[in-house]
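Friendly challenge for the regulars: who can give me the structure tokens for this chain first? No prize, just bragging rights.
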Amino acid sequence: MIYHLRAAGTSFVLDARGTAVPAVIHFGADLGELDDRALENLVEAQQRAVGPSSIDSPLIQRVVPLMADGWSGRPGLAGYHEGTQISALGVQHTAALRIRQAERTDQSVTLVLESIPPAHGEADATGLVVEIDIELSTDGVLRQRLSVRNEGSSVYSLASLDATLPVPPRARELLDFTGRWPRERQPQRHDLGLGTWTRDSRHGRPGHDAAFLMVAGTPNFGFRHGEVWGSHLAWSGDQRLWAEASATGHSLVGAGELLEPGEVRLATGEIYHSPWLVSAWSNSGLDGLTRRLHGFVRARRQLGERKVMLNTWEAVYFDHDLAKLTRLAETAASVGVERFVLDDGWMKGRTDDRRALGDWVVDASKWPDGLHPLIDRVHGLGMDFGLWVEPEMVSLDSDVFRTHPDWVLSAGNAELPQPWRFQQALDLSNPDAFAHVYGQLAALLDEYPIAYLKWDQNRDLLGGSAHRQTLACYRLMDALRQQFPTVEIESCSSGGGRVDLGVLERTDRVWPSDTNDSLERQSIYRYTAGLVPPEFLGVHLGAPTAHTTGRSHELSFRLATALFGHAGIEWDITTASEPELDAIRAWTSFYREQRALLHSGVLVRADDVDPARQVHAIVAPDASAAIFAVVTVAATRDSGVAPVTFPGLDPQLVYRVRAVKLGEWPRVLQDAPPAWWTHGEITLPGRVLSELGLTMPLLLPEQALVLHLVAV
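First reply, four minutes later:
Bragging rights claimed.
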């Protein structure tokens, strides 16, 4: 059977005829309605000639690439049955697979493959079944997950199980990401030459340097042009993403969980499930990819209205004082904040970052009446209340460690793993440790009306099984969500160390970075939002001087930066002046008026001729309105800057363009503004705005101008 899945201008063709491992023939542009004969001809048309000095049949890219089928690159499945002749030879590749069953249900295909018995006996010892689930969403997003079940009598030691996706030879340029704390998701590009480009993450989380999204595309693809294939591994633990181009002319992208030797050993009947590989195709650059991915994420996670929040961390740090926090809450309510989140420092003995993690009880010395007085005041001001927790971690100076030192996640050595931020990880795969953490968190949620948890995770895992710990973390989140379904959870991991679609299956937003420096945030937002919709991204107004960089910015730049996402404040605004508070009040008002658009629209990022100028926007799904930001991240190349074009608009509609004042207007260096600026607004057809654009004031570096467009 040849399967043809179609959705949203995308086709996926899979050849599952015969007994061989099925082959992916096409994932890309919609091929239209094809009958069985046309599909057979399509497959035949893609079959390559047999080259010299090669296997004696055409090399085909199977859904599980294996050496047995002639593939000499990275295999999709590697492992061995312990104590068998094959394992004694050191062979890591499963000898061969054949199809046992294939079934289609609407927009999905399930394949069941089985191992071909070895020629020299031991068939009972070495049986395997591999199941592959393939789904094409209504947005044209492809999901693949593999599972392997041991049907042999000996233990199967799994080395790797990767989902793969072929890409055509014209996809010769590769984009992925790297970074550090607090400068995540920085793009890097290079040619996809012959060989393998591999990105490993051994952090016990994706990490600040995570590959994040691996994109193969036609040379020089951009935000609005080029053909691209993007893949993301929906997994919050160790992982490997890779791209490979073979001298045979075949190229593919693959990803899977990065397993340490002996980490997954399957007894007879046991099953391992790989993470989902989420992939999409676009012929309109990265923005086309993003539109599909945003639709996919939004369809799976329905969110309520995204409340303006204030987080106390950069306002008070560990200095918890009821009177001070009450003043902060009162000021927050006066400027339009809707949620007040108490960050780190509320737990028993938590005076700094060297103690008290794991003891999730309120500090009676700081809070003699518990958190009730603060929460009552917050509620009285019309806000709901959130609380910071770090459930996966433990301090050595804590009651739980003193009582249960064996609960620390480790490789079983006599010494503990290297300390990281003065803390260790708690082994949540230990049922007793899991029950302790769940019990203390549930007790907090039972006693206090907490609407929101900021769930932090502040270290790499340097010992023990990242596989088991990640699954246990998922179970803990899932258990709390089931017991307390109205409580929202934010995923934070030293900022943006755990930003992935695996954690977003069970949380309501991610904190993309610990920096509130607006210049750094512009880049972090620009690329994190390529996968994660804005309403899932925390964006906060920080203090005038960022504590992570020492860099200072005007209020208008900080407000414009913190508009495009789930907005909040992380600043001691009791120190703000009245004009600053008025500006914040106007900003929260504009955000609340426009959040339906900001959190449902289409992300647009322009390919500007000047790298010092970045343009991004949210455009309504029907293109009836849009909010654009024109940002200068450095001094512009030219003194007379070219007009800004406005992609994503409907060429048939006419738009009124109005500048939005956030605090003061951005600073400029010009003798006279553009002609239209003196009127405060201008009306132009979408086609003109998209093709010719609109001249802008000559912004100084590190400034932003917000524009509101409405169809008239």
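The longest helix spans residues 578-598. The chain has three domains: 62-300, 309-403+421-461+475-596, 603-711. Your move, everyone else.
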